[in-house]
Specification:
The chain is an all-alpha fold. It has helices at 2-29, 34-43, 49-59, 69-77, 91-101, 103-110, 117-127. Helix 1 packs across helix 2 and helix 5 (91-101) packs antiparallel against helix 7.
């Protein structure tokens, strides 16, 4: 029984360390803006009006081909630069998203449904393909 508890403790500690390392990597390296998303979800801090205005002015003339105005505004309000979001989607990326989310949910999102934060994090690795 003691051996089982030792193994269980080691596994739990290892998983916690790996999760912390993953979030650290995503926040520090910021691949495809994931660090910005995670920071906005974790810290929920209000940006200063000056920073919000800078972000709005920077993105005001940019129209992302795959986002509607409401989605763009949410991303701008979160402090994420819309121009960092890919504007071309390859068939390989689509296949990856279908694999991660399932065909039905991928079709809903393609049709205009809003993805959840978890779904966004699931498909972000697909953007690099």
């Amino acid at each position: 029984m003691k051996t089982f508890l030792k193994i269980l403790a080691i596994v739990v500690i290892t998983v916690i360390i790996l999760i912390v390392a993953l979030f650290g990597y995503l926040i520090i390296k910021n691949p495809f803006g994931t660090g910005d998303i995670i920071k906005s979800l974790i810290f929920k801090q209000e940006m200063s009006e000056e920073v919000k205005q800078e972000n709005i002015e920077k993105n005001v003339n940019y129209d992302h081909p795959y986002l509607n105005e409401e989605q763009e505004q949410k991303i701008i309000d979160a402090g994420i630069d819309i121009e960092k979001i890919p504007t071309e989607i390859s068939q390989e990326q689509i296949d990856c998203a279908v694999e991660k989310l399932g065909e039905a949910r991928a079709k809903e999102i393609e049709g205009g449904a809003e993805p959840t934060s978890l779904e966004i994090l699931k498909v972000l690795p697909c953007a690099g393909k």
